[in-house]
Amino acid sequence: MDSSPGSGAPKMPTPSGAHESNKNGASASPGASERRPNEDLESDQQAPSGPVSKRRRMQESQQNRKRGRTPPSVFSRRDRSRSPLNASSRDGPSRRSRSPLQPRSPPADDAPKRKRPGGGARMGIVDRETMRRRQEDRDRQEMEDAQRMSRDRGVSDVVRQHYNAVPERGREWRKTESKIKGLRSFNNWVKSTLIQKFSPDEEFGAARDNDTKDWADDSMGPPPTEDKRLLVLDLGCGKGGDLGKWQLAPQKVELYVGLDPANISIEQARDRYASMRSGRGQRGRRPSAPLFHGEFQTKDCFGESLGDVRIIQQVGFDANVGPGGSMMASRWGGGGFDVITSMFAIHYAFESEEKTRQMLSNVAGCLKKGGRFIGVCPNSDVITSRVSEFHEQRRGREAAKPAQSEGPEDGEVEEEEKCEWGNDIYRVRFPGVTPENGVFRPPFGWRYTYFMREAVEEVPEYVVPWEAFRALTEDYNLELQYRKPFLDIWEDEKNDRELGPLSERMGVRDRATGALAMTEEEKEAASFYHAFCFYKV
Ligand SMILES: C[S@@+](CC[C@H](N)C(=O)[O-])C[C@H]1O[C@@H](n2cnc3c(N)ncnc32)[C@H](O)[C@@H]1O
Predict the structure, then answer these.
(1) Residue 3 above 50 pLDDT?
(2) Which of 89, 212, 348, 365 could cross-link with 332 by S-S, CB 3.0 to 4.6 Å?
(3) Pocket test for ligand 1, best of 344, 374, 461 (most atoms within 8 A of CB)
(4) How far is CA 467 from CA 363, 384, 527, 530, in A?
(5) In which domain, by residue range, is 293 found?
(6) pTM of this prediction?
């Protein structure tokens, strides 16, 4: 889960075709435009500063937001000016300010009642009773909300504190001393693979296709000159371990925004970025490639809207995404980012439906049409099969028990068996009951603790029931293009022209044998995960 070494020459996206499969890949999409690095963004993230024109822009932006409109960013404006559709989008149909979690309308008995003659005395009694009941309902609701909030905060705090406490051990240690160096390298290679395959946009992919053609042939037209760069948002960026991978992305990155609730991790990410920028820690990197602009901010990306993050406002954020969003909003709206990435993090959102939807609103609100949402997370197919296997074995043991030993003796408490599995380097433990058939319904709040040697100490995580998740993404105009278990990715890509050699440079493939350089235990730990890519449509 750390920065990867080596350099990968650009990898061509494979031709697109929407499908979800363990064996099939897919690729690129959407529009492009010219971009220039924007040094304005070097300023501090919290307080607007700089020349008057910029301040005025900020004021206008705030006024517009008050009116319910987010003006296009310097970045998104450049994109939109290219297309007549986009050019009119911000002046187009006004958008309703709507939250997918909007409270329902007040109950009908809040409406004014017509008085009946002679009903005055009775009304007084009824009203007092109704009011008492309403007050009780309100009190109960408040208590439940407070309990839920403190429970949620409890888990979030544990997660945040855990990641803050994970020491940053340095690249050399990770490559030589670590007991899971094979797994670390493999995870990094999978993340690089996703970035290489899915971060470029359609035009970039097409331009590269043409690049390999014979330009001496006049009928081909001029070679591509487009240098459109990517705007990337990383949800749960941790210590910035993927910065190096983005530096090697086939289509250059203009802006990388890293968000994470763990403040110490964010400081470390900022330091890592600063040292990359200054040229320290650049071993093996393309020396001439100027580093993209980077911004890092402490932020809970699943419990809160990202609409109040300044850099996100600048790039463009659409608050009107999600179920019930108008056709107009889905046609004209959208954020300004080309790629949203969330590596090993979205499972924290599955604590509740509210958080999962908030995460999806953030993704869809930040992503432009045709933008890609890429990530990796635990594979619920693996969890389902482990859980149903556990119940099957338990039932088998119970059926095999002799009749007289059924049930605990008087005063004895039979310990409930808990579902858990793992090996020396990783362990998954469900503290509570699990579904007999392994199907997680409703799909939220299925907590387990996850342990990974040297990396994660029994941290609470939540199952991401894949089918339910995929169904939910449709509400946010996110279309699944790719989903693949980690070890299948290896099988499919290990001989790729770019990704094969990259795996050698990263120490993932044994140079002598060509085999995957992981122990059996590491392979089992890796098989817990899968990777995905959605397109915003
Ligand atoms: C296993 S680490 C992965 C870090 C990084 N993405 C990587 O691949 O190296 C999981 C990250 O998710 C972050 N995380 C947990 N809850 C989050 C939330 N609500 N919003 C954003 N990130 C969160 C953690 O703080 C942690 O940095």
Answers:
(1) no
(2) 89
(3) 344
(4) 18, 12, 19, 13
(5) 169-211+230-378+469-536
(6) 0.73
